[in-house]
Amino acid sequence: MSTPADLRQASPATVAAVTRGRTRRNRRRRIVIGILVVLIGAMVAVSLMVGRTFYPPGDVLKVILGQDVQGATFTVGRLRLPRTCLAVLAGASFGLGGVTFQTMLRNPLASPDIIGISTGASAAAAVAIITLGLSGSAVSVFAITAGLGVALMVYLLAYQDGVSGIRLILIGIGIAAMMNSIVSYVLSTAGQWDLQEALRWLTGSLNGVRWEETVTVLITMIVLVPVLFLGSRDLTVLQLGDDTASALGVRVDRTRLLVVVCAVGLIAFATSATGPIAFLAFLAGPIAARLAGPGHSLLLPSALVGALLVLLADFAGQYAFGTRFPVGVVTGVLGAPYLIYLIVRANRAGGSL
Amino acid sequence: MTTEHQLTAENLSLGYKDRTVIEGLELAVAPGRVTAIVGANACGKSTLLRSMSRLLSPRAGQVLLDGKEVHKLPAKELARTLGLLPQSPLAPEGITVSDLVGRGRHPHQGVFSRWSVADDTAVAAALEATHTVELADRAVDELSGGQRQRVWIAMALAQETDLLLLDEPTTFLDVQHQVEVLDLLTDLNRSRGTTVVMVLHDLNLAARYCDHLVAIAGGKVHAAGRPCEVLTEDTVRAVFGLDSKVIIDPTSGGPLMLPIGRHHMVA
Q1: Å between A14 CA and nearest CA of chain B
Q2: What is the interface pTM, i.e. ipTM, of the complex?
Q3: CATH number of A42-349
C-alpha cells in the first residue's frame, strides 16, 4: 500500500463517480416519490367520483369549489370528500409514526401498532367515547395521553442498561394485548353499538367521517410534521447505533424524545379519528424502504405509501366485495401475512428495516 | 499540518451503575501522534475512549479538549474536531458504501443545507484513502469483515476530524487486514497530521504502530510513554498478570512481547 501525499485530496474521477452514484440514488427516490404522488392524486379522484353513483370530474370539481350540484353536493361534499381527505391524512400520519419508530429502534417489528401505542390510543378513545360519552378534542386528548403513556410504559419496562429492541417489542406486544382486551371490554358494555362502529376501535374504519375529525388530524399534522422532518437527518444517523450517531454530533436522547413525541402525537390523533387502522404503521415503512431504496430518510416515502394504502384499502373495502368492509379489515388481511414473513426472515437473518 | 488539539483527562472517574471502572485517571493525548491504549479485558479502556468522545459523562473529573470540557461543547462542533469509531457500529440494511461514508458528513451539514461539492470530495477522498473506491456502489452487508472495517474507517475519515478515536479497530479481522487497517491509520496520521487514539488488543501490534503507548490497570494509567519504555516484562506482569519475555523486534527495533505460559520455560 503506498502512502498518498495527502489523504484529503481525491482524484476528480472518484469525486465524479461519487456524485454520479449519489445522483442516481436520489433520482430513484425522486421518481418513486413522484409516482406515489400521482397515484395518490388518481386514487383521490377515483374515490371522489366513483361509488354507488358516478359523478363526472366536472361535478366533483364544482362541489369542491362550493357550487351546488343536485345529489353530488351531499354525496361528494358531505360523504366522499371528508372521507377521502381523512384517508390521506390518517394514512400519512400512520406511515410517518410507524417509520419513525421502525427507524429509531432499527426493527420493522417495532412499529407503534405492534408495540401497543396505537392500541393504547384506541383503548383510550373507545373509553372516552363509549364509556364517558365524550366527543371532539377531549377524545383526542385522551388518545394522545394514552399513546404517550403506553410509549413511556413500554420504554421503562424494557429499560435495563439501555433499551434492547427485542425486549421492547416483546413487552410492547404484551401491552398491546392488554389494551386490546380493554377495547373488547368497552365494546361489550356498549350493546347498542353496531358492528361497524365496534370495528372502528378494533381495526380502524373511515365510516361516518365528519369534517371535524379531518380538521383535527390536519392541524396535528401541520404542527408535528415539520418538527419531525427537522429531526429526520438525525434520525437517519441514529440508524448507525447510538454511539456512532453521538460521535457524529447527534444528541441521541434529545432526538429520540423529539421524534417519539411527534410520532406518538400523529398516531394518537389519527387513531382518535379512524381507530387503529390495522398494520398500516407497520406496513408503510418497509414498503417505502423497498421502493425508495436505503440510505435516505424514509419519512416522506412512508407518509405517501401510508396515504395510498389507506385510499386503496378503503376503496376496495367499500366496493370490491359484496359487503362493505372497514378499511382496517382490508389492511389487516394485507398486513398479517407480511408480519409472518418478517418474523420468519428476522429469525433467519436478524434483519432490520 | 492541522492545528494541534490538546485532549486531556483530568482526575477522571467513570463507571456504570454501582461499578466504578476508572478512578482518578490522568492522561494527556500526544497531539499529532498515534496513541494506543492497552490493558486487560474490562479494565475500562473502551469506557475511557467513550468518555473522551462524550458518550459517557464522568462521575468526577473532566475531559478537556483545548481547555474546554467536551461534555459542554455543542455536539456538532465537537464532532467536527473529534471523531470516534465505536467497536460495533450498525449498518442499516442495504445501504451502499458511499451512502454510509456520506453519513460521516453529518456534523458538517445543517438541517437545511444541501449536499455540497465539499461533501462529495470528502467522501471520495475517504474512499480513496481506504482503497474502497471500487466498493462505492456495493451494499455494506455484502462485504467481508476486512472490507467493512475499511468502510467504517472511511466514514470516520469523511468526518474530517483532527482527532480520531477508534475502539478496537482490528477486532475480528484476519492478521493481514489488521495490518492493513493499522497501516491506513499510520498513513492518516502522517499525511493529515490526525491525532489517532486507539484501543488495541494485540500488544505487539500496538507497540509496533503507536508513538505513545498507554497501559491501563486498576482504573488508572499504569504506564505511558514510548513503546520501548512501556512494553516491559514488569508492565506485562502488572497489567495482565502474565509472565513474558520482551525481546527486540527484528523488523522495527521496538519491543516484542512473547508470553510464557505455564507449559514453557524461559531458556
Answers
A1: 6
A2: 0.88
A3: 1.10.3470.10
